[in-house]
Amino acid sequence: MLATMIIAMVGLMLLAVPVAVAIGLAGVIGTAFFTNLPLIVVPQQAFIALDKFPLAAIPFFILAGNIMAAGGISSRLVDLVDSLLRDVRGGLPISCIMVCMIFAAVSGSSVATTFAIGAILIPAMTRQNYPIGFAASLQATSAELGVLIPPSIPMILYGVSAQAPVGDLFVAGLGPGALIAVALTAYVLVWTRITGHGKAEDVPAKPFGRSLRRALLALLMPVVILGGIYGGIFTPTEASVVAVVYALVVSMLVYRELSVLGLLQVIRGSTLSSAIVMFIISMAGLFSFVITRAGIPAMIGTFIAETFDGPITFLLAVNAFLFLVGMFVETAASIVVIAPILAPVAVAFGIDPVHFGLIMITNLALGMITPPFGVNLFAACAVANIGLERMIRHLLPLVAVILACLMLVTYVPWITSAPLALIGR
């Protein structure tokens, strides 16, 4: 049954059928041919998959990120970080990493981060004589922080799918996010010295004091959102609405860079993006229901438990499996389908479900920057107006850096547990 559904799903994807439709049709095939259930369960399960309150955060975080991009918040963050790092060799690429880290603290989406920050920094890096392939590759990789620095849409999906506390996932994500940011910064510092790029730009940076004043409200945004979540003032779902309101007030009433017409365009784009994500979740929920009813997760759990004799080999096998899955399947769909299968097995091996969630999300985030279906790559290509082939040479070392960080996150649980310990979790 599972083999037939997977073959059908992969075959449809190879025929250029959209991912959500391919997953949904595979679920319909499983329901029709391998169960005695009436087909009315298809729309029922598709609806049930969406009938979860935490999922309401997804469209609001997407909207908040798009408002930030259109309302001048992201450009002020870029100016602030640039004013600090302009005189540092490789300062502009490091600015890209740092701004993506800050922007990720509200948007929750790596693709939104790629478009919002890449539209500003990719042209800026090329003007400073960085290879455009390097600029696009670094932007796509740095935007991966959007799913690791809380709030994060994939963390919400994992929490719902694996019944793990979303708030703890948010806090634990600070460790891997900071690790990857530091690793990418170290790589940029080494790369610029080896290649000779990254000399100071002739155009002086804006004064730091002025940039800080202009960006102060933008910097307060993640403080308000994350402080409210961790302080118990509101839930992650409620925080998504607060993020939208805050972004609207700052963009339209304070900065006055977002008009009513611009807001309507932002809402339209956010609605389309949200619909795509929610459709994937709905169809993946149907797929998960069919295989769960057939007892396949339990069978896989038994197979893994009998095949691997400990958590070390189990996690190594899981990472290899997820790396391959991430190359071909969209992150949201992968989490909703795979997390309910693997998370219970991980718990049986004594692995904390929050730690396992961060391993899974960090690994699948790699799929956003690996061909053939890396969504961040395509977004960066669109912003830079180049083909993927011009990015590959610069992308491979960055993938190696993320893989090294993944191994540390996997086998050094302290990276995820330390932020939780700091707040007494």
What features would you describe in this structure?
The protein is mainly α and 425 residues long. The protein has helices at residues 2-14, 19-34, 41-50, 57-70, 73-85, 91-107, 110-127, 132-142, 153-162, 166-172, 174-195, 208-230, 236-254, 260-293, 296-307, 311-328, 331-348, 353-366, 375-384, 392-411, 414-422. It is 77% helix and 0% strand. Helix 3 packs across helix 14 and helix 18 runs antiparallel to helix 20. The longest helix is centred in the middle third of the chain and has 34 residues, at 260-293.
List keywords for this structure.
425 residues, mainly alpha
Nearest-angstrom radius of gyration? 21 Å
> Poorly predicted ranges (pLDDT <50, ≥5 residues)?
none
- Specify the helix fraction band: over 70%
Largest sheet: none
Give the H and E element order: HHHHHHHHHHHHHHHHHHHHH
Count up the helices. 21
Mean pLDDT comes to 83
Categorize the overall geometry.
globular
Task: Report the span from N to C terminus.
Answer: 41 Å
Structural class assignment: mainly alpha
The count of DSSP E runs of length 2 or more, i.e. the number of strands, is 0
What percentage of the residues does DSSP assign to strands (E)? under 5%
